[in-house]
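EI: anyone free to look at a 438-residue chain?
SC: sure, send it
EI:
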Amino acid sequence: MKAPRQMRLGVFVQAPGHHVGGWRHPDAVTGDWPNLPLMQHVAAAAERGRFDLFFLGDGYATGYGEHPSTIGKFEPLTLLSALAMGTRRLGLAATASTTYGEPYHVARGFASLDHLSRGRAAWNVVTTAYDKSAAVFGRPHPPHAERYAMAGEFVAACRLLWDSWDDDAFDADKAAGQFVRPGSLHVPDFHGKYFTVTGALNVPRAPQGHPVLIQAGSSGPGQALAASIADVVFTAQNDLDEALAFRAALAGEIVRAGRRPEDVRVMPGLMPVIGRTRAEAEALFAELNAAIDPRQASTVLSERLGIDIAGLPLDGPVPDLPGTEALKSRAELLLAMARREGLSLRDLYHRVAAARGHLLVVGTAADVADRMAAWFEAGAADGFNVMPPFFPGPFDAFVDEVVPLLQARGLFRTEYGGETLRDHLDLARPPDARHGVR
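SC: here you go
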C-alpha cells in the first residue's frame, strides 16, 4: 500500500530573524556576529524536529538600511559545510546566483557539499533580482528575461559537470595501479549564449547524483524555469485560493516541460508568531512591529515593489505603480493583497517588514498547525519553509509545539525514513544522462 502523503518542512534561516524588528526582541540572539553557535542550535533543533532541510537565502548588498539579516552574514556554502559535521540527516540548502557566478564554481561547491554531508545538499537557484548587487561585480545588471535565460544555461552546464564521472569511476585498484577506471570520464562540451564549458569537474559524482534543485521564481519566466529544473519550488503566497491557482498554473508548466507535477514539491514560506493564547501571540506581533526601523522597512518594501517608496503617500489606497525588472511576481502578489484587503502603503510596509509577502499566522501552536493542515490537505502546498520572526526561541517553539501536533495528525514524519535529502523528499536520484544509470 502507498504510504499516506506527509508534509515536507524546511527552516528558512535568516538570522537574527525574518521580521525586520525581530533582532530587537530581548530573546533574540545577536551577540558575536555572525554567530556559529546559533546556527548550530537551529540546525540541531531542525534535525530534532525531523525537518527536511535547513535553507539559507543569500544576497550581495550591505549597508545601514538593509534588512538586518543581510547586512553581515556567513557565506552559505562555508556555513553549511560546517553544519554538515554536526548533523546526520538534515538537508542543507544554499542559495547561489546564476547571474553573478560561473557554472564550474557552483557545480564544484555543491558537489563537494553533497560528499561532505553524504547526500544532503540542495542548491537554491536564483537569478539575483536587485540591480544594486551588480556594484560589487563591476558589470551591468541584466534585465529580468535575460537573467532567466542565463539561469537555464547555467543549470544545464552544471548538470553536465555533475555527470563528468561515472558513479563507480574512482575504484582505486592498487593491484592494477589504476586509480580511476578507464572510460569513466565524460568531458562536457557545452556552448551557450552566456556560458561555455569544455572541461570536466574534478569532483567525483555526488552521492545524490545531482544536488536537489530549489527554485523560487513565480513570474512567467520564473515558473518556466522551475518547471524545467526544480525539485522544490519555494513560493510566496498568503491566500489559499491564490496558492491553489499558483499550484495549478505551475502544474501546467511542468507538463509542458515534459515532466510530472508529482515530481515537484511546492513549499510556500510561512511565518508563525506563536503564543500560549491568541492574545499573547498578537501582543508579541505588536511588540515586533513597534520595533521596526522605518528605514529598513522602507528598503524591504521598495525592493519588493521595485520602486523607491520615499515620497509616496503612506496612507490611503496603494497607488498604481509601474512594472519592475526586479521581483516581478512578488510585486504583483503584494499589490494584489493590498487591493484585496484595502491596505495602504503603510499597512503594506508593516506586512512586508514582517513576512515579505509570505503566509503569516499569528496565534497558538494549534492555530498554526490548523492553517498548515488546511493548505496541505487542499493541495495548495506539499509543505512549508518556516520563517521565524527571530531566532532561536520562535523556532524552538515551532519544533516543540507545532511539530508534535502535525505528527499526531499523521501529517508529518516521526522519524527519518532514509539517509539523503532526496530520500526525505521522496525524489528519484537523477540518472547520468549518458548512461541512464542512477
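EI: The longest helix spans residues 144-162.
SC: 👍
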